[in-house]
Amino acid sequence: MAEIDIVRFAVNETPYCFWDLDAKQRNLDFINSIDPFYFQHIANLHSEALDGDEKQYAAAALRVAYSHGLESFFALLCATVQAPDCVIGWLLRYQNVELREVVRKISERRRIYSKLQTKPVTWDVIVEVIFSYFITGDNDKDAKIRKNFARLWQRFASDFLQDNHVYEYNSIKHGLRARMGGFHLAMGAEDIPGVPAPPDKMRMMVDSEFGSSFYVPVRLQDRHNFAVMQQSVNWDPINFAYALQLISLSIKNVTGFLKILHGIPIKEVPFSFCDNDETYDEPWRRQFSISSFGMNSQISPEAVCPATKEEILAVYDQKQDSKAER
Known about the structure:
Elements: E1 5-11, E2 14-20, H1 23-32, H2 38-47, H3 55-82, H4 87-93, H5 96-107, H6 123-130, H7 139-160, H8 163-173, E3 179-180, E4 184-187, E5 203-207, E6 211-220, E7 222-234, H9 237-261, E8 292-295, H10 309-325
């Protein structure tokens, strides 16, 4: 009987054990199947449509692709941190809540389970490990490349962990239940209290063609009781196009590290970086003075007597009793 390989790893703090007749080859086959240029293709495809009649659809596609790209990249990166010898297992078992928690722990320099031979696990440390096989021969250049990617991944993490970022992503991807298009905000002094200032006295504070409006839950004392509020955000889809290019670049470098780790000769694995340092900042270059605006819920937490879990679930018993009486 063939010997069975066993690989033990954790997804955040959940333990798993992977069994295979050749775990290393299985992992390498999986890594080789990863296509880092998919998100680059999406960026190029929809960027061309931003000047056409369906530019709002193109902008929405870029917005969704950005969140999709962030999840794909961070899942691959966190798998590399926690289970470089079982990336396939980590990616098949993780849940989004666990992925976000690992990314949050790295950003906050908190302890995590890691097979990387270094502590603490920070973005700077992860970059040093990923690029440990990539040396240009110029120490200053190497240091700058690592610094740029560490800053880039940290900013990606900040976007990935924003609650509104998640709500907007879900609202667009699940049937486009968000209204596409940005918002404008103008302000002006009232000549008569309570009477809006005339248009000629209004000063435009922000005006965006692109963005979205969507609903987010507002907690009322506990997680079982909530209201909703409308959130509007402005953004420039060109930011997402640049971000997707950089996500593709990042995925390529992480998979390159993993291939070398699994025995592929270093000379056969190219790494990539941007010649211009400013390119790493392009996803956030086009910003608005006011990028988000929320319409608060009309219900305050103090105005409600929260329903208990039992009271909420009792509605189902009432419906069943009503059907039985018929």
